[in-house]
Amino acid sequence: MNFEISAKDVMGRIGKLKTPNGVVETPALMPVINPNLKFISPKEMKRMGAEILITNSYIIYRSEELREYALKKGVHSLIESDLPVMTDSGSYQLMVYGDVEIDNATIIEFQNRIGSDIIVPLDIPTPPDASKEQAEKDLEITLEREREAIQLHDEMGGSSLLAAPIQGAIFPDLRRLSAKKAAELKADFYPIGGVVPLLDSYRFSDVVRVILEVKSELPPSAPVHLFGAGHPMVFAMAVALGCDFFDSAAYALYAKDDRYLTVTGTKKLEELHHFPCCCPVCSDYTPAELKKLPKNERQLLLGKHNLWVSFEEIKTIKQAIKERNLFELVENRIRAHPYLVAGWRVIKEHVELLELYDPSAKQGFFYTGIESCYRPSALRHHRKITNLTLQGEKFVISAFPDEKADFRLIPVFGVVAGEFYPAGHAELPDEDFIEDEAIEEGLNCLFNFLERNKKKRFELGLTGRWISFIEQRNIKIPENAVIGAVIRNSNSGGN
Ligand SMILES: [Zn+2]
Asked: Residue 311 pLDDT more than 60?
């Protein structure tokens, strides 16, 4: 196995990918190197945190000078780096220009000969809004080329890794089919392709659906690359959905237009009065000073900031995985844009898949909003409490924190015994300020619990928040429960 996972949270993981030129820790960001342009040096990228780079073998192949150099001395020497290098095949150019002057076998062989660490076949990216017929046709070609790539790769020998890109536009069944076929080929690396137009237009719900469909078919041990995702505002969400690799051309493209990346979105340099960052660039310059510099200098500095902030986010995410509070980080990050909120809420449709990946041992539970209700720990708790065998006949379930009771009633989790983790130690806002969804989740759990223990009797200590929720919706309390102090006075000695 080339990919080894050492820590997990949500569907995200910290792993190590072995490549011929070194081991890469994931989640990893691969800065895109344009072999035709001198911009930020790979040496400096390494200092910023880059462990792997990506460049385009098609651009190298097309230039006689670059091609001859790369064939003689290798791609690492060409871009002047000892880091592992992934090479793209020209698929992106195919999407943008509609045609490339190369075939699959030639570009695979070329990537092999120049010593690429990760080789990509010439897959066909289908635009998101193409017809299903088109997407099917494109996918058929992609799958055929991947089969050819595997065969060539085996024949050529060598230790490079082979990628099997996953296509299928926004059609769930095609994405699943593509992922399934790619997994059958036992490729080393799985890029999810064709998502750039979705990311560019903030169609995050579609992106989330695509990732989850793909993840449902790939084995958990497969390293996944969200191809073309380079904006740090999506990293936390994508990692939490199980993506391990990103590539950034964004750092340079945005800098070219005087745009400044942050984890909450993009700023225009002209709008900035202060830099909300402490990277070396933002420490040495004010926005006013940067604006006065000649364009090429300004562009270089903005590009550096854009990379610094991107790597900082990768480190933040890794730490969150270690601390197992990636849910909290993502729920925080999605507040940056309503479409990110909408995108993340798609997980509600895939709770079982999330549960399969999310480790059950958590450090805690910090409620940050409605999305916290979708975490598997809430679902797991509901199942656990519903299956609990009760000893005794009468029980008190109370939402009053200071009241003596057999069980607490709390939003999201519902019926909770003190020792239950993380429910018994969850940090939630005061009931009066929590969203209805959290009360509703808690109430659903309570009613399932009462239904499951039909023959027992319960007294419910309900605070005003729960009572008004029940009254407003005309919810009927099950027959084996009463609200108030009836049982307590006759049963538990008047506490
Ligand atoms: Zn900065």
From this structure: yes
